[in-house]
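Sat 14:20. Reprocessing the chain from the morning session after the first attempt stalled halfway. Input below, unchanged.
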Amino acid sequence: MKALVFETFGGPEVLQYQEVADPILTDNEVLVRTKAVGLNFADIYRRKGNYHLAGQPPFILGYEGAGVVEKVGANIHNIQVGDRIAFADVPFANAELVAVPLDKVMLIPAEISFETAAAILLQGLTAQYLVTDSYAIQPGDTVLIHAAAGGVGQNLVQMAKLKGANVIGLTSSTEKAQVAYAIGADNVFLYKEQWVQHVKDTTDGQGVHVVYESVGSTLQDSLEATKIGGTVVFFGMSGGDPVAVDPRLLMDTSKTLTGGDLWNVLTSFEERKIRSQQLFEWMIDGKIKISEPTIFALEDGAQAHTFLESRKSIGKILLQP
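Finished this time. C-alpha coordinates:
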Protein backbone atom coordinates (compact mmCIF):
# COMPACT_ATOMS: atom_id res chain seq x y z
CA MET A 1 0.00 0.00 0.00
CA LYS A 2 0.98 3.67 -0.31
CA ALA A 3 1.39 5.83 2.81
CA LEU A 4 2.60 9.26 3.87
CA VAL A 5 5.68 8.68 6.04
CA PHE A 6 8.69 10.41 7.56
CA GLU A 7 12.01 9.14 8.91
CA THR A 8 13.35 12.22 10.72
CA PHE A 9 11.64 14.95 12.71
CA GLY A 10 11.28 18.34 11.08
CA GLY A 11 9.17 20.53 8.83
CA PRO A 12 6.65 19.43 6.18
CA GLU A 13 9.52 18.67 3.81
CA VAL A 14 10.38 15.49 5.75
CA LEU A 15 7.11 13.87 4.61
CA GLN A 16 7.32 11.33 1.78
CA TYR A 17 4.67 9.36 -0.09
CA GLN A 18 5.90 5.82 -0.66
CA GLU A 19 5.14 2.11 -0.70
CA VAL A 20 5.05 0.37 2.68
CA ALA A 21 3.91 -3.03 3.92
CA ASP A 22 0.17 -3.65 4.38
CA PRO A 23 -1.07 -3.80 8.00
CA ILE A 24 -1.11 -7.23 9.64
CA LEU A 25 -4.65 -7.82 10.87
CA THR A 26 -5.31 -9.33 14.31
CA ASP A 27 -8.43 -11.27 15.31
CA ASN A 28 -9.95 -8.19 16.99
CA GLU A 29 -9.41 -5.72 14.16
CA VAL A 30 -11.02 -4.76 10.86
CA LEU A 31 -9.07 -3.76 7.76
CA VAL A 32 -10.33 -0.46 6.35
CA ARG A 33 -9.62 1.06 2.94
CA THR A 34 -9.52 4.75 3.72
CA LYS A 35 -11.62 7.22 1.75
CA ALA A 36 -10.81 10.33 3.81
CA VAL A 37 -8.29 11.01 6.59
CA GLY A 38 -8.35 13.97 8.97
CA LEU A 39 -5.33 16.22 9.50
CA ASN A 40 -4.83 17.69 12.98
CA PHE A 41 -2.29 19.75 14.89
CA ALA A 42 -1.39 16.57 16.74
CA ASP A 43 0.06 15.30 13.46
CA ILE A 44 2.27 18.38 13.29
CA TYR A 45 3.40 17.91 16.88
CA ARG A 46 4.34 14.30 16.12
CA ARG A 47 6.14 15.25 12.91
CA LYS A 48 8.19 17.82 14.83
CA GLY A 49 8.98 15.37 17.63
CA ASN A 50 6.93 17.18 20.31
CA TYR A 51 4.79 14.09 20.89
CA HIS A 52 6.19 10.65 21.65
CA LEU A 53 6.19 8.13 18.79
CA ALA A 54 6.61 4.41 19.41
CA GLY A 55 8.45 2.06 17.07
CA GLN A 56 11.07 2.73 14.44
CA PRO A 57 11.00 4.89 11.28
CA PRO A 58 9.50 5.23 8.80
CA PHE A 59 6.69 6.68 10.89
CA ILE A 60 3.12 7.01 9.59
CA LEU A 61 1.04 9.91 10.90
CA GLY A 62 -2.73 10.18 11.12
CA TYR A 63 -5.18 9.11 13.84
CA GLU A 64 -8.67 9.50 12.35
CA GLY A 65 -10.47 8.73 9.14
CA ALA A 66 -13.32 7.02 7.36
CA GLY A 67 -13.57 4.24 4.82
CA VAL A 68 -14.91 0.82 3.87
CA VAL A 69 -14.26 -2.45 5.70
CA GLU A 70 -12.36 -4.89 3.46
CA LYS A 71 -11.66 -7.67 5.96
CA VAL A 72 -12.69 -8.57 9.51
CA GLY A 73 -10.77 -10.40 12.20
CA ALA A 74 -11.81 -13.86 13.36
CA ASN A 75 -13.30 -12.61 16.64
CA ILE A 76 -15.48 -9.90 15.09
CA HIS A 77 -19.14 -10.64 14.33
CA ASN A 78 -20.94 -7.28 14.54
CA ILE A 79 -19.01 -5.59 11.69
CA GLN A 80 -19.21 -6.85 8.10
CA VAL A 81 -17.14 -6.47 4.95
CA GLY A 82 -18.51 -3.47 3.08
CA ASP A 83 -19.60 -1.56 6.18
CA ARG A 84 -18.95 2.19 6.13
CA ILE A 85 -17.07 3.14 9.27
CA ALA A 86 -15.17 5.98 10.84
CA PHE A 87 -12.45 5.78 13.47
CA ALA A 88 -10.48 8.01 15.81
CA ASP A 89 -7.42 7.38 17.97
CA VAL A 90 -6.12 4.77 15.54
CA PRO A 91 -2.49 5.22 14.46
CA PHE A 92 -1.06 4.98 10.93
CA ALA A 93 -4.15 6.48 9.28
CA ASN A 94 -2.15 8.33 6.59
CA ALA A 95 -2.30 5.24 4.40
CA GLU A 96 -4.50 3.41 1.92
CA LEU A 97 -5.22 0.64 4.45
CA VAL A 98 -5.61 0.87 8.22
CA ALA A 99 -6.10 -1.86 10.83
CA VAL A 100 -8.80 -0.59 13.20
CA PRO A 101 -9.48 -2.27 16.58
CA LEU A 102 -13.14 -3.14 17.11
CA ASP A 103 -13.50 -0.83 20.11
CA LYS A 104 -12.43 2.13 17.90
CA VAL A 105 -15.02 1.47 15.16
CA MET A 106 -17.94 3.86 14.64
CA LEU A 107 -20.55 3.06 11.98
CA ILE A 108 -21.44 5.89 9.61
CA PRO A 109 -25.14 6.49 8.81
CA ALA A 110 -26.10 6.46 5.13
CA GLU A 111 -26.84 10.20 5.27
CA ILE A 112 -23.24 11.05 6.24
CA SER A 113 -20.46 11.00 3.61
CA PHE A 114 -16.94 9.70 4.25
CA GLU A 115 -15.64 13.25 3.92
CA THR A 116 -18.15 14.62 6.42
CA ALA A 117 -17.44 11.83 8.90
CA ALA A 118 -13.69 12.40 8.69
CA ALA A 119 -14.19 16.15 8.96
CA ILE A 120 -16.50 16.10 11.99
CA LEU A 121 -15.61 13.05 14.05
CA LEU A 122 -12.52 13.88 16.09
CA GLN A 123 -13.27 17.56 16.52
CA GLY A 124 -17.00 17.00 16.94
CA LEU A 125 -16.53 14.37 19.64
CA THR A 126 -13.97 16.62 21.31
CA ALA A 127 -16.42 19.52 21.41
CA GLN A 128 -19.17 17.22 22.65
CA TYR A 129 -17.28 16.08 25.74
CA LEU A 130 -15.95 19.60 26.40
CA VAL A 131 -19.48 21.03 26.69
CA THR A 132 -20.88 18.08 28.65
CA ASP A 133 -18.08 16.45 30.66
CA SER A 134 -15.30 19.02 31.16
CA TYR A 135 -17.80 21.78 31.91
CA ALA A 136 -21.53 21.18 31.62
CA ILE A 137 -22.85 24.34 29.94
CA GLN A 138 -26.10 25.62 31.41
CA PRO A 139 -28.69 27.87 29.72
CA GLY A 140 -27.66 31.48 30.21
CA ASP A 141 -23.94 30.79 30.67
CA THR A 142 -21.52 33.08 28.85
CA VAL A 143 -18.85 31.05 27.07
CA LEU A 144 -15.53 32.18 25.55
CA ILE A 145 -14.19 29.97 22.74
CA HIS A 146 -10.66 30.24 21.39
CA ALA A 147 -10.03 29.67 17.67
CA ALA A 148 -13.78 29.85 17.09
CA ALA A 149 -13.46 29.38 13.31
CA GLY A 150 -11.31 26.26 13.60
CA GLY A 151 -12.53 22.68 13.49
CA VAL A 152 -13.18 22.22 17.22
CA GLY A 153 -14.09 25.87 17.61
CA GLN A 154 -16.94 25.79 15.10
CA ASN A 155 -18.40 22.74 16.80
CA LEU A 156 -18.04 24.34 20.23
CA VAL A 157 -19.85 27.49 19.10
CA GLN A 158 -22.79 25.51 17.74
CA MET A 159 -23.04 23.09 20.67
CA ALA A 160 -22.82 25.93 23.19
CA LYS A 161 -25.69 27.67 21.39
CA LEU A 162 -27.66 24.40 21.41
CA LYS A 163 -27.28 24.41 25.19
CA GLY A 164 -28.56 27.96 25.49
CA ALA A 165 -25.28 29.80 26.09
CA ASN A 166 -24.20 33.30 25.09
CA VAL A 167 -21.08 32.72 22.97
CA ILE A 168 -18.02 34.94 22.56
CA GLY A 169 -15.51 33.77 19.98
CA LEU A 170 -11.85 34.63 19.41
CA THR A 171 -10.29 34.51 15.93
CA SER A 172 -7.14 35.73 14.19
CA SER A 173 -8.79 37.60 11.31
CA THR A 174 -11.97 39.40 10.30
CA GLU A 175 -12.61 36.68 7.70
CA LYS A 176 -12.58 34.04 10.41
CA ALA A 177 -14.72 36.25 12.62
CA GLN A 178 -17.40 36.21 9.93
CA VAL A 179 -17.31 32.40 9.96
CA ALA A 180 -17.87 32.39 13.73
CA TYR A 181 -20.75 34.86 13.44
CA ALA A 182 -22.33 32.81 10.65
CA ILE A 183 -22.59 29.73 12.89
CA GLY A 184 -24.11 31.57 15.82
CA ALA A 185 -21.48 33.41 17.88
CA ASP A 186 -22.97 36.44 19.64
CA ASN A 187 -19.70 38.39 19.76
CA VAL A 188 -16.32 37.79 18.13
CA PHE A 189 -13.06 39.54 18.98
CA LEU A 190 -9.64 39.37 17.31
CA TYR A 191 -6.48 38.22 19.07
CA LYS A 192 -4.67 41.38 17.94
CA GLU A 193 -7.22 43.48 19.86
CA GLN A 194 -7.39 43.96 23.63
CA TRP A 195 -9.70 40.98 23.75
CA VAL A 196 -9.59 40.42 27.52
CA GLN A 197 -10.89 43.94 28.07
CA HIS A 198 -13.50 43.49 25.35
CA VAL A 199 -14.72 40.30 27.06
CA LYS A 200 -14.98 42.09 30.40
CA ASP A 201 -16.80 45.03 28.82
CA THR A 202 -19.25 42.63 27.17
CA THR A 203 -19.93 40.89 30.49
CA ASP A 204 -20.33 44.08 32.59
CA GLY A 205 -16.86 43.62 34.03
CA GLN A 206 -17.53 40.17 35.42
CA GLY A 207 -15.96 37.80 32.88
CA VAL A 208 -17.29 34.58 31.41
CA HIS A 209 -18.50 31.40 33.09
CA VAL A 210 -16.14 29.20 31.10
CA VAL A 211 -13.26 29.57 28.64
CA TYR A 212 -12.41 26.79 26.20
CA GLU A 213 -8.64 27.29 25.90
CA SER A 214 -6.90 25.59 22.96
CA VAL A 215 -4.05 28.03 22.25
CA GLY A 216 -1.94 27.43 25.35
CA SER A 217 0.14 30.59 25.29
CA THR A 218 -3.03 32.56 26.09
CA LEU A 219 -3.86 30.64 29.28
CA GLN A 220 -3.08 33.51 31.64
CA ASP A 221 -5.32 35.85 29.64
CA SER A 222 -8.07 33.24 29.66
CA LEU A 223 -7.94 33.09 33.44
CA GLU A 224 -8.13 36.87 33.53
CA ALA A 225 -11.23 36.81 31.29
CA THR A 226 -13.01 34.31 33.58
CA LYS A 227 -15.45 35.44 36.24
CA ILE A 228 -14.92 34.78 39.94
CA GLY A 229 -15.80 31.12 40.42
CA GLY A 230 -15.54 30.44 36.69
CA THR A 231 -13.73 27.68 34.82
CA VAL A 232 -11.00 27.45 32.20
CA VAL A 233 -10.91 24.19 30.24
CA PHE A 234 -7.43 23.64 28.80
CA PHE A 235 -7.45 21.19 25.90
CA GLY A 236 -4.78 22.31 23.41
CA MET A 237 -1.67 24.38 22.79
CA SER A 238 -1.69 25.29 19.10
CA GLY A 239 0.00 28.60 19.95
CA GLY A 240 2.70 27.27 22.26
CA ASP A 241 3.15 26.02 25.80
CA PRO A 242 1.24 27.79 28.59
CA VAL A 243 2.99 29.51 31.45
CA ALA A 244 2.89 27.93 34.89
CA VAL A 245 -0.20 28.84 36.93
CA ASP A 246 0.16 29.74 40.60
CA PRO A 247 -2.47 27.69 42.46
CA ARG A 248 -2.89 30.61 44.87
CA LEU A 249 -4.54 32.48 42.00
CA LEU A 250 -7.13 29.72 41.76
CA MET A 251 -7.65 29.79 45.50
CA ASP A 252 -7.96 33.56 45.72
CA THR A 253 -10.47 33.81 42.86
CA SER A 254 -12.27 30.48 43.36
CA LYS A 255 -11.55 29.70 39.71
CA THR A 256 -11.17 26.20 38.30
CA LEU A 257 -8.51 25.17 35.80
CA THR A 258 -9.25 21.76 34.34
CA GLY A 259 -7.83 19.68 31.52
CA GLY A 260 -9.58 17.68 28.86
CA ASP A 261 -8.52 14.75 26.72
CA LEU A 262 -10.88 12.87 24.41
CA TRP A 263 -9.24 9.50 24.97
CA ASN A 264 -10.17 9.56 28.64
CA VAL A 265 -13.81 9.68 27.49
CA LEU A 266 -13.91 7.32 24.49
CA THR A 267 -13.07 4.20 26.44
CA SER A 268 -15.24 1.53 24.78
CA PHE A 269 -17.10 0.55 21.61
CA GLU A 270 -20.40 1.37 23.32
CA GLU A 271 -19.22 4.79 24.49
CA ARG A 272 -18.08 5.67 20.97
CA LYS A 273 -21.35 4.39 19.53
CA ILE A 274 -23.50 6.54 21.83
CA ARG A 275 -21.47 9.71 21.37
CA SER A 276 -20.96 9.37 17.61
CA GLN A 277 -24.66 8.62 17.04
CA GLN A 278 -25.59 11.79 18.93
CA LEU A 279 -23.11 13.78 16.84
CA PHE A 280 -24.35 12.32 13.55
CA GLU A 281 -27.99 12.93 14.56
CA TRP A 282 -27.24 16.60 15.21
CA MET A 283 -25.71 16.82 11.75
CA ILE A 284 -28.55 14.99 9.99
CA ASP A 285 -31.05 17.28 11.77
CA GLY A 286 -29.09 20.36 10.67
CA LYS A 287 -28.27 21.41 14.24
CA ILE A 288 -24.53 21.15 13.65
CA LYS A 289 -22.96 22.25 10.38
CA ILE A 290 -19.34 22.31 9.28
CA SER A 291 -17.43 24.39 6.77
CA GLU A 292 -16.61 22.66 3.52
CA PRO A 293 -13.36 20.80 4.24
CA THR A 294 -10.18 21.57 2.32
CA ILE A 295 -9.06 18.37 0.60
CA PHE A 296 -5.52 17.43 -0.42
CA ALA A 297 -4.36 14.22 -2.05
CA LEU A 298 -2.51 12.08 0.49
CA GLU A 299 0.61 12.30 -1.67
CA ASP A 300 0.44 16.09 -1.24
CA GLY A 301 0.52 15.77 2.54
CA ALA A 302 3.46 18.18 2.89
CA GLN A 303 1.37 20.93 1.28
CA ALA A 304 -1.52 20.13 3.62
CA HIS A 305 0.76 20.41 6.68
CA THR A 306 2.10 23.75 5.43
CA PHE A 307 -1.43 25.03 4.94
CA LEU A 308 -2.53 23.96 8.43
CA GLU A 309 0.52 25.59 10.05
CA SER A 310 -0.15 28.82 8.15
CA ARG A 311 -3.37 29.21 10.20
CA LYS A 312 -5.14 30.37 7.04
CA SER A 313 -7.39 27.34 6.96
CA ILE A 314 -11.03 27.53 8.00
CA GLY A 315 -12.51 24.27 9.21
CA LYS A 316 -11.11 20.82 8.54
CA ILE A 317 -8.29 19.69 6.28
CA LEU A 318 -8.65 16.20 4.80
CA LEU A 319 -6.22 13.88 3.02
CA GLN A 320 -7.47 11.42 0.41
CA PRO A 321 -5.49 8.41 -0.87
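The mean pLDDT is 94.
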